[in-house]
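By convention, each integer encodes one residue's backbone shape. The lines below illustrate.
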Amino acid sequence: MFCSWLRRLAALLVAASTWSSVAAANDDALKSPFAGLTDSPFQSKSDAGEAPGKLIDLAKESSKPITLSDGAQLIDTGLVRNNGRLLGLFGRSDQAFHDFISPASNVLFFEDPRTLTELRLHFVNQWIPGNNPVFQGGSAQYIAAQIRVALTQRLSIIATKDGYIWLNPGNPGLADSEGFADIAAGLKYNLIRNPDSQTIVSLGGTVELDTGAHRVFQGSGNGEFHLFATGGQEFFDGLAHWNMAGGLRLPSDTTARSTMSYWSNQWDVKLTDRLYFLTGVNWFHWLESGNNLAVNFEGMDLFNLGANNVAGNDVVTSSMGLRYRFGCMNEAGICWELPVTDRRDLLESRLYTDLCIRF
């Protein structure tokens, strides 16, 4: 009888010990600073056998292959190393601002404030005003690929200009021409990043090299610098957003190129979970004339003619379009832009389309 009661007591002690261990573990989990941790775009996910919420060292090689999700699957998985980074170096796009979309006008200067790792393919068809004293109408086409890669959660490399240009003047005395555009690249840094309020502000700059073809008004002077600030704010729990950017276009040789400032705004509204309507306003202001061409008009974002009589001129454009999100953060968009001021320079209207593939 005594042995029977002793066995029962031992069983009760074992059960109590097990329950106490489980309760302590649960209590520790609640007190853990990582208990509410959400996935970071700059961290690999832990394996199923590891403790929930455990942070993974990105520099440590994993014995298991990285599983990509959503839009990241569109990037060749062979380019993603075992530390979860593209080519072993570049981080994921910042998914803390998941509902934002990229600007769709002022193509070369209106920078997305987020830290992104992306390939952005875009095409521009621009019509030239028929009353332009030199070109007398016609059109220009531009096709290019912008590249952005995240170095850290706040710092990224941006390559904003490259590609190929076709120029087709309406003036029968001017021949059609085509050639490569200049190349521009630089850095962008998140100065303010607040996922709770969905507020983000970035500063950055690029250097444009005079590598393009002179016959399409590229490659003049010694290049130029672009300094900018860009920001975004979410409203109505993700149903609407406002992106804004301002910057300076500063030539190295002020006789070969003009000096310009701009202020761009875009507002978007969600029509469905994936479809957005957007509208925007861009203001281009010329601070100083160049001395390259004896004309009184300039080329906004794509061209810098170095016109000798444009200081003080202003062109304001309006845009509207649609964006469709697919996968996690990928986007495709279409936008129509046209001036709302009497002055139009080289822009009668413009059709813009793009495709953003993000990692």
User: Anything to note?
Assistant: The domain at 95-358 is CATH 2.40.160.40 (Porin). The radius of gyration is 27 Å.
